[in-house]
Amino acid sequence: MRASMVTATRRNLFRVIDIFQKWRKKRASDCRVFRQRDNQMLAVAARGTPLQFQENRVPFQPSSSSDLEPLRRSFQTIVDRLAPDIAGHPRRTGGSLDVGGRELRYIDLHSVYWQSRQIFIDRLYDLDIPSRSPVILDCGAHIGLATLFFANRFPTAQVHAFEADPTIADALAFNVGSFGLPRVTVHRQAVWVNEGTIRFSATGDDSGCLLPDGDTGTLVSTMRLRDFIEGREVDLLKLDIEGSEFAVLADCDGALKNVRALIAEVHLFGQRDASLANLLTVIERSGFRYTLSDLHQPVWLPCPARPPFRQLHTSLGLVTVFAWR
């Protein structure tokens, strides 16, 4: 009886090994197909040669709610493809990717990789919105990955996408058209504390920032966020504006009563007047409940002074505030 049990166990083990080998062959085949499809754009990017944008060949077709899962799978494939050698790709080199048969223009492949992981794989910005026709503000939209997520997650939403960098705003506008998002409005402006113009440091990736006291950089148009949200029902306000969130939210103090939910990436990069306590006070005073999550140590930035704690590699920080009613 013991011999028969051993034989059965070995037979089952061989079956498992056979299934696993077939799965590996299929996965390898899928990877080859993906590599062949994107070989030109990724190989050229790897050599550091700027890619030329191609004309959009995808006819305009409005997206539907059923598009979100295929879209997520497409970005999962891109993340899996890029993950083994993401450090080997050059920074700030533009190009295009095929995402479910639609062209996605990018400015920096590293930014696409990390944003794809956050937005489509980890679903950092996902939430429940009871409104049938929500209004969403994507401030710091970059090339539009969060905009794309919101528009597909909530097909009846009116999405306002703000991007200050002129070159990145061009890619954002193209991607909105490429993916057929008629309910998205692109604003080629920075959200700020007044209307007018301001200097902007265009870094060629997702870390460009405003220079309130600067006399160099690109001159860009600004929109006062407070004026935009006052008297308007906003279901979600998303802020990823590279350090300007402190001044912008302080200026919005007392005007957030019509905002139902807020997601803000807070950049504690040692800038003057960057107070997390003051920012959270504005959120509390506006009647929000909130929590902090997605904390990172930005070790890629120069650190003015190493903290005494061995667990910390920098005194700088990056954290996301989630606020709701």
By DSSP, the count of extended strands is 13
Name of the top-level CATH class: Alpha Beta
What's the CATH superfamily, by name?
Vaccinia Virus protein VP39
Q: Which strands sit side by side, in order, in the main sheet?
A: 5-4-3-10-11-13-12
How many domain regions?
1
**Head-to-tail CA distance between termini:** 65 Å
Portion in beta strands: 15-25%
Class derived from helix and strand content: alpha/beta
Taking Cα atoms only, what radius of gyration do you get, to the nearest Å?
Answer: 23 Å
CATH architecture: 3-Layer(aba) Sandwich
Shape verdict: globular
Order of helices and strands: HHEEHEHEHEEEEEHEHEHEE
Discrete helix count: 8
Biggest beta-sheet profile: 7 strands, mixed
Taking pLDDT < 50 over at least 5 consecutive residues as the criterion, the unreliable ranges are: 26-65
Q: What name does CATH use for the topology?
A: Rossmann fold
**Helix content range of the residues, please?**
25-40%
Mean residue pLDDT: 84
